[in-house]
Design a protein that fits this description.
The complex is a heterodimer of chains A (310) and B (351).
Chain A lengths: L5 H28 L4 H4 L12 H11 L2 H32 L5 H10 L9 H9 L3 H10 L1 H9 L13 H9 L3 H11 L3 H9 L4 H12 L1 H16 L3 H6 L3 H4 L2 H7 L15 H31 L4
Helix pairs in contact in A: 3-17, 4-9, 4-10, 4-13, 13-17, 16-17
Chain B lengths: L3 E10 L2 E11 L4 E5 L6 H9 L6 E6 L2 E2 L10 E4 L11 H11 L4 H15 L14 H13 L5 E5 L7 H18 L2 E6 L2 H7 L2 E6 L2 E6 L1 H6 L4 H6 L6 E8 L3 E4 L2 E4 L10 E6 L5 E10 L2 E4 L3 E8 L2 E8 L8 E5 L6 E4 L10
Parallel strand pairs in B: 3-8, 3-9, 6-7, 7-8
Antiparallel strand pairs in B: 1-2, 1-4, 4-5, 9-10, 11-12, 11-14, 12-13, 14-20, 15-19, 16-17, 17-18
Helix pairs in contact in B: 2-3, 2-4, 3-4
The chains are: A mainly alpha (310), B alpha+beta (351).
Chain lengths: 310, 351
């Protein structure tokens, strides 16, 4: 908007404040709830003034849900997903943008259609693969008859097995294998002028060197933006960790642990009165790491998405 | 010091051939400018020498060695690109020294050579800056430095001055020429700007539609254009070209005017094209009269535009002062005339 009258400014500010309130009030209620005692929180009406029990609620949530261990699990998983994503997508985008090879368009569209199959849609086959990551190869060998040949020669049946359940690998790999980052990188790589590649060729650099010393440094902001997005994405995962992790004591994530703070009737924790104040304190703890990541990286994040560093 | 030989070089993309059978010899230490309108294939030719484009047919030899299959780095060429193609994330020093870094030259030697090159180009104070923080002329110099540091046997320039403003262009032109005088490295310079071409070249190659029209010193090309295309392309304003018909012996006819020329040896009635440069027209007296349609003031001279036999005709009057006359009498001195075959466009030899 080019218009700048006091009335118009007031109006835009009012709309902004409204938006802020819509986003902020639920967070405030979570914070307030985390500072009250169980009795206070169950007394209507809803209190909007913070109480004095924040620390004890935080400590209670920390111990009940074993958050120390779970936060580390979540961190490992989120960082691994974000880093894996950056490596995978920068390399694939480099291949698609800078090389001319037969089937290039086909490969591109194959990657593209995976966008239409998010994890939730393909969760059953993905689980099957996670239970035995080599099962697709086993199937191929069975079909083409190599398994039979193997049995004839060795007398033993061929059974490939690589179980990813209850492991960090299982938590991370299926989340890495998506196309979003590839597109972000592809769009950026396409803005790199051809002359830069030609200049590096004249300077004697091969493709890998060009990738490492010119393309990667140029796409730093891009990488940071992708890191932020993927960190949040992985941190907030609920369904997949719930499926792939049965050993919750060792491999449970922080978001899964939050669920432990809310007892429901018939659950193993018994039909206790839900400790909403502790649950909300748990929420506060769990949202802190992603909040810190966003706060630290948002400067680059915005630059990486809107502008290019050239 | 190496020479470059292009032998029957062709380039096609799919079925479209854009370079048709170009053969060219570039002597060691020579500064050759390839001049032509956009789309004539001059940049493609340069990129084929550099190794950035594959050679469809024919061969290119640098220093006697056929380089068709060699990677750019193995050909010993350095190139300056039109938009400089500096690495935006590297400082000036890193940009200049990148080729050495790739070649595995030690840090100490690299710094010394960067300092030396930066000194010659007047970049010593800017070594720690990023290209973003440089002016157009400085970026141009960095691009030159990047090419110079490898001490290449051949310099290739792909319209390196076209992104600069007029004043800087003249200045950089002079610097490039001075540099060449000092280093005497074999250089190929591609441009569409004829002033650049005339001033820089030891030898000029005029290209048109994927073919070489003429090769010669700038003066040869200017005074004796080999074809109608060259005649119309070189010179500003270009040569006046008027359709005419040959008369026996040493004259041609335009309409009712009989114009004495040199012995052209053409049969009477052959269709020819008569050419004369605007500055070669004798004004003040003569059989012809120019009805001035408008004039262009250059300060040092004035161009009067009119018509001859229905075609645009321009005369130049040096040091013209005062008002624009309505009519100018002029004559066509036979020694300044050029004749071209209307069919083939080729120049008829002056006997």
């Amino acid at each position: 908007m080019i218009e700048k009258t006091p009335l118009f400014n007031a109006l835009t500010h009012a709309i902004l404040l409204l938006g802020l309130a819509v986003a902020f009030v639920p967070m405030w209620l979570v914070f307030v709830a985390a500072t009250l005692t169980l009795t206070e929180i169950n007394t209507p009406p809803i209190s909007v003034i913070p109480g004095h029990h924040l620390l004890e609620n935080l400590s209670s949530a920390w111990h009940r849900a074993d958050l120390g261990h779970k936060l580390i699990n979540s961190l490992v998983m989120s960082i691994a997903v974000a880093a894996g994503k950056i490596i995978l997508s920068s390399v694939t985008a480099f291949g698609i943008v800078f090389f001319r090879f037969p089937g290039r368009t086909l490969v591109f569209w194959m990657i593209f259609i995976t966008l239409m199959l998010p994890l939730e849609v393909r969760i059953v086959p993905t689980y099957a693969v996670a239970a035995n990551a080599l099962s697709p190869f086993q199937a191929i060998l069975d079909v083409i008859g190599l398994s039979w040949v193997w049995t004839q020669f060795t007398g033993a049946t061929l059974e490939l097995n690589w179980n990813l359940l209850n492991s960090y690998t299982g938590l991370v790999l299926p989340l890495v294998a998506t196309a979003t980052g590839t597109f972000l990188y592809r769009q950026f790589f396409m803005t790199i002028p051809d002359e830069l590649f030609e200049a590096s060729r004249m300077d004697g650099a091969g493709p890998l060197r060009f990738f490492r010393e010119i393309v990667l440094p140029l796409s730093t902001t891009n990488a940071i933006a992708l890191f932020t997005i993927m960190f949040l994405y992985a941190w907030n995962q609920y369904l997949w960790p719930l499926l792939v992790v049965t050993d919750r004591l060792h491999y449970g994530t922080a978001v899964m642990a939050l669920r432990m703070l809310i007892p429901v009737m018939g659950d193993s924790t018994g039909g206790d009165v839900p400790l909403w104040n502790v649950a909300m304190a748990g929420c506060l703890i769990v949202i802190t790491p992603p909040l810190l990541v966003v706060a630290a990286l948002q400067r680059f994040f915005i630059r990486g998405l809107v502008a290019t560093d050239k | 010091m190496v020479d470059i030989a292009l032998r029957n070089v062709r380039k096609s993309y799919g079925k479209t051939e854009i370079i048709h059978d170009v053969s060219l010899g570039i002597e060691s230490g020579e500064f050759v400018v390839i001049l032509g309108p956009s789309g004539c294939g001059k940049s493609t030719l340069l990129r084929m020498i550099a190794g950035l484009e594959a050679i469809t047919k024919g061969e290119i030899a640098i220093g006697g060695r056929v380089v068709n299959e060699l990677e750019p780095r193995a050909r010993g060429c350095a190139m300056v690109f039109q938009n400089y193609a500096l690495y935006p994330h590297m400082t000036v020093a890193e940009n200049i020294g990148y080729a050495l870094k790739v070649a595995g030259v030690s840090q100490a030697e690299r710094s010394a050579r960067i300092a030396r090159v930066a000194e010659t180009l007047g970049l010593a104070d800017y070594l720690d800056r990023k290209p973003m923080a440089l002016s157009g002329g400085q970026r141009q110099r960095v691009a030159m430095g990047r090419a110079m540091i490898r001490e290449p046997s051949v310099f290739l320039f792909d319209e390196p001055l076209s992104n600069l403003d007029a004043k800087l262009r003249v200045q950089m032109r002079i610097e490039i020429r001075k540099l060449h005088n000092r280093l005497a490295t074999t250089s190929v310079f591609v441009t569409h700007d004829q002033v650049e071409a005339m001033t820089l070249a030891d030898r000029l190659v005029v290209m048109h539609a994927g073919q070489v029209e003429q090769v010669g010193t700038p003066l040869e090309v200017y005074t004796a254009p080999a074809s109608l295309f060259v005649a119309g392309f070189i010179g500003s304003p270009p040569m006046n070209l008027i359709a005419c018909v040959a008369e026996t012996g040493d004259s041609v006819r335009i309409g009712t005017h009989l114009i004495p020329t040199f012995q052209h040896g053409q049969q009477a009635g052959t269709r020819l094209v008569l050419g004369i440069r605007p500055e070669d027209v004798t004004t003040g007296e003569g059989d012809f009269t120019l009805d001035v349609e408008f004039s262009e003031e250059l300060g040092v001279a004035r161009h009067y535009h009119g018509q001859l036999a229905g075609e645009v005709f321009v005369v130049q009057v040096a040091g013209a002062r005062g008002g624009v006359p309505a009519q100018i009498p002029y004559s066509l001195p036979p020694s300044a005339l050029h004749l071209f075959d209307a069919q083939s466009g080729k120049r008829l030899p002056t006997r």
